[in-house]
């Protein structure tokens, strides 16, 4: 990705710190993915009599107000972006306190704040908003109470959050207008025995540039699409007509060019559903569960042959809520039917992210940073390209 900004020339031998220099550089296609799963209950109030009172007192419900709930999701999104996480799964661990009368149906989500009634949905919605390039948000996210404090959210500034003066062959866009097929031209081509595939209708796409692009497909308006632009834009500049481009799978920038292209989001009804409903072919082939009762992460990332982590294509890291993953196992009816009692039995590795912690508790949003940082070397050295 090339950035067409003017740069300040620093004195010889002095680094220029006037602007960020850590611009993501693609280095060839990447096949492996990193997924993170965590419960939406971390922003919910707990009133579970089964939980120790000391735990509830010393680990305050970290998101009492809408502002704090929004900021907590923002901190997690920052970690996902910094460490190039490809998928985030929000699962129900059975610990969310549902407000009486609010319900969990989609009818109540359209015009109500869901941070209290449905924290899983709230996290999904805000994470999706943050992952979307800024110029697309007004098209795809109507005014909603869940975004009332969107102005305090941090910027993720990911590679696909391109500015108008940035150049990248791939861009995210939104469809704005459909152009019906020219039937007379189509019939004429068919009669002449020529290919008529280009006359099946097109769709105009806004990709954040002055010029709109046309893709050879009929797609409903206000649909987000990943677009691959022509390689030589300078020779194709046209101030009057839309230029042709192609719609590609959202995974292509990562798989073909090696770009980090944001994260996908999905919901899971339980802890077991996080694994069984994996959208990747073949499922997750390397899984980590996190707990203060696990093995020290340093033992896995060391050079001992007995603890060598294998290569992987799809890694999953699962974090628990206030009471850990143990309560998620107890609330999972499928796991109970199977006789699973310990969460460590679900994962390849059961790890402690911070042995000897000075605080009695580590909050989930802190654990996400610790886990992704601790496993960074494993991701870079063991991921199959």
Outline of the structure:
The chain has 385 residues and is an alpha/beta fold. The protein has helices at residues 53-58, 66-82, 119-131, 134-140, 183-191, 252-257, 271-276, 297-301, 325-331, 333-338, 364-374, 376-382, and strands at residues 2-3, 33-39, 87-91, 166-167, 170-179, 202-206, 213-215, 224-228, 243-244, 246-248, 264-268, 286-296, 314-318, 349-352.
Contiguous runs where pLDDT drops below 50 for at least 5 residues: 53-61, 99-106, 194-198
Q: What percent of residues adopt helix (DSSP H or I)? A: 25-40%
The major β-sheet equals: 6 strands, parallel
Oligomer: single chain
What integer value in Å does the Rg equal? 24 Å
How many DSSP helices? 12
Placed side by side, the strands forming the largest sheet appear as: 11-3-2-13-12-14
- How many β strands by DSSP? 14
How much of the sequence lies in strands comes to 15-25%
What does this 3D model show about the protein?
By secondary structure, this protein is of the alpha/beta class. The protein has helices spanning 53-58, 66-82, 119-131, 134-140, 183-191, 252-257, 271-276, 297-301, 325-331, 333-338, 364-374, 376-382; strands at residues 2-3, 33-39, 87-91, 166-167, 170-179, 202-206, 213-215, 224-228, 243-244, 246-248, 264-268, 286-296, 314-318, 349-352. The strands form 3 sheets. Strands 11-3-2-13-12-14 form a 6-stranded parallel β-sheet. Helix 8 links the parallel strand 12 and strand 13 (314-318). 33% of the residues are buried.
């Amino acid at each position: 990705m090339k950035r067409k900004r003017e740069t300040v020339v620093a004195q010889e031998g002095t680094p220029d710190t006037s602007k960020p220099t850590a611009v993501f550089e693609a280095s060839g296609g990447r096949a492996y993915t990193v997924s993170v799963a965590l419960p939406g209950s971390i922003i919910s109030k707990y009133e579970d009599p089964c939980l120790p009172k000391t735990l509830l007192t010393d680990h305050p419900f970290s998101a009492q107000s809408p502002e704090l709930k929004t900021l907590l999701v923002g901190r997690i999104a920052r970690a996902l972006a910094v460490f190039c996480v490809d998928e985030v799964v929000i699962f129900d661990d059975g610990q969310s306190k549902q407000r009486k009368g609010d319900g969990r149906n989609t009818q109540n989500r359209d015009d109500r704040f869901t941070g209290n009634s449905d924290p899983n949905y709230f996290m999904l919605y805000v994470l999706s908003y943050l992952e979307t390039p800024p110029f697309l948000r007004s098209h795809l996210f109507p005014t909603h109470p869940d975004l009332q404090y969107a102005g305090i959210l941090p910027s993720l500034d990911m590679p696909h959050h391109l500015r108008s003066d940035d150049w990248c062959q791939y861009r995210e866009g939104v469809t704005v207008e459909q152009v019906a097929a020219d039937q007379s031209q189509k019939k004429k081509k068919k009669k002449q025995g020529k290919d008529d595939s280009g006359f099946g209708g097109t769709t105009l796409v806004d990709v954040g540039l002055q010029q709109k692009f046309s893709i050879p497909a009929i797609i409903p308006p206000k649909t987000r699409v990943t677009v691959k632009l022509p390689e030589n834009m300078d020779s194709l500049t046209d101030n009057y007509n839309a230029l042709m481009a192609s719609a590609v799978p959202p995974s292509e920038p990562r798989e073909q060019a090696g770009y980090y292209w944001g994260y996908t989001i999905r919901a899971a009804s339980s802890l077991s559903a996080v694994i069984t409903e994996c959208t990747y072919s073949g499922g997750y082939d390397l899984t980590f569960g996190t707990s203060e009762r696990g093995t020290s992460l340093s033992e896995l990332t060391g050079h001992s042959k007995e603890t060598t982590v294998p290569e992987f294509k799809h890694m999953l890291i699962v974090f628990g809520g206030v009471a850990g993953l143990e309560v998620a196992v107890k609330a999972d009816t499928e796991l109970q039917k199977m006789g699973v009692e310990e969460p460590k039995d679900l994962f390849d590795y059961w790890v402690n992210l911070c042995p000897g912690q000075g605080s009695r508790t580590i909050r989930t949003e802190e654990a996400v940073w610790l886990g992704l940082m601790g496993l960074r070397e494993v991701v870079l050295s063991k991921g199959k390209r």
